[in-house]
């Protein structure tokens, strides 16, 4: 659904209420027939690895531009859309492994090509969260009236109409798998964590917190952007294998940068107690109550790190992490880039917590991927807005 104009406060609330009045659609989808993946990029590669952990075979993958090897992850054949016989299109489940482009045109293309059973891949993983705790395919029920009021309060508090549009797009997908778009609020793939307003506010004396550092890619980008304007980096990553990669990245840095970088194999949390954690899932590793493994947690408030710019992407634990970070944030008033798409806290609880805890900030929301993913809340303290 396309909307020509950005919604102001009143219009955004009206659009939200209209969304609530519409019938909800969609549900987690189990694999009950041969499985084919559409898309052999990064998401397709990760999906193939995760289906292997679930012992769900993948018949093949489809991509308009197959890799030179003709294989996904070294073993799954990758074919072009025209290579699939009509019988397979009728009898298979095709899971779309693309979030760098709108879902509906892909779905329509596949339907017109004869595919009958088409679903976003994250909706498939959502059916197996008891075994594999993915956090991107969740559905939410219509919120209670008190929650609706809280959502409306957040819609009112955004600093620009583009944020209201992004918030509505996010809710439309999560409530009913509706794909809304606003030409003046585009999904931006290339500037996640570093939208222009954040970059404009950067100073010559930054201390960067990279919570959920994975292999160090975002910290490396900060080094490239800021060079000697960056005085220190604290990179936190709880997954043991991810941390090994992060530590290798750190050790490969010049000595002058190693002096400024600290890496910690911890989870950022509301308390310093350890917590159940499902490791070994790459980017998808996360806290999970049913896991037999545990990870050490730490509060940023217990560290002496003078953060001026914080990126927090911790697979659904963002709100818990913020609760152990609030005193530091209130004292240091850093720039903030906080992901909010891994669970329903992102609909209002996480932005509302930030807006209440940190007054005199300018709050924005932007989307950096499709299918309800890539939603990031940005905070810029008023005193740095005109830096």
Automatic annotation (TrEMBL):
Pfam families per record: Methyltransf_21
Species whose genome carries this gene: Dechloromonas denitrificans
Domain Methyltransferase FkbM: 210-362
Stored SUPFAM superfamilies: S-adenosyl-L-methionine-dependent methyltransferases
Coiled-coil regions listed in the entry: none
InterPro entries: FkbM_mtfrase, SAM-dependent_MTase, SAM-dependent_MTases_sf
Name the record gives this protein: Methyltransferase FkbM domain-containing protein
């Amino acid at each position: 659904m396309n909307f020509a104009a950005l919604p102001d406060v009143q219009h955004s609330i009206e659009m939200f209420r209209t969304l609530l009045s519409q019938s909800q659609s969609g549900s987690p989808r189990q694999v009950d027939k041969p499985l084919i993946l559409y898309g052999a990029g990064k998401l397709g590669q990760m999906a193939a690895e995760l289906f292997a952990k679930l012992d769900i075979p993948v018949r093949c993958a489809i991509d308009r531009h197959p890799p030179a090897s003709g294989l996904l992850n070294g073993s799954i054949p990758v074919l072009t859309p025209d290579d699939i016989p009509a019988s397979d299109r009728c009898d298979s489940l095709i899971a779309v492994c693309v979030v760098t482009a709108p879902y509906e045109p892909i779905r329509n293309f596949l339907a017109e090509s004869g595919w009958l059973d088409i679903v976003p891949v994250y909706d498939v993983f959502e059916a197996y969260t008891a075994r594999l705790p993915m956090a991107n395919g969740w559905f939410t029920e219509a919120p209670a009236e008190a929650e609706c009021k809280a959502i409306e309060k957040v819609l009112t508090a955004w600093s620009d109409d583009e944020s209201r549009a992004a918030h509505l797009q996010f809710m439309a997908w999560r409530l009913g798998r509706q794909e809304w778009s606003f030409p003046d609020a585009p999904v931006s793939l290339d500037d996640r964590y570093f939208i222009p307003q954040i970059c404009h506010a950067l100073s010559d004396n930054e201390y960067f917190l990279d919570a959920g550092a994975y292999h160090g890619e975002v910290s490396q980008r900060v080094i490239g952007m800021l060079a000697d304007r960056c005085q220190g980096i604290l990179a936190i990553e709880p997954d043991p294998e991810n941390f090994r990669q992060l530590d290798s990245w750190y050790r490969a840095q010049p000595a002058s940068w190693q002096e400024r970088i600290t890496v910690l194999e911890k989870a950022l949390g509301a308390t310093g107690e350890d917590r159940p954690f499902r490791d070994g899932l790459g980017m998808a590793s996360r806290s999970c109550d049913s896991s037999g493994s545990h990870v050490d947690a730490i509060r940023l408030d217990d560290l002496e790190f003078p953060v001026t710019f914080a990126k927090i992407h911790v697979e659904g634990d963002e709100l818990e992490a913020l609760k152990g970070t609030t005193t530091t944030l209130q004292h240091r008033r850093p720039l903030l880039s906080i992901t909010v798409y891994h669970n329903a806290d992102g609909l209002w609880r996480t932005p509302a917590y930030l807006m209440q805890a940190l007054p005199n900030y300018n709050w924005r929301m932007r989307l950096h991927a499709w299918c309800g993913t890539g939603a990031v809340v940005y905070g810029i303290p008023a005193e740095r807005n005109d830096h």
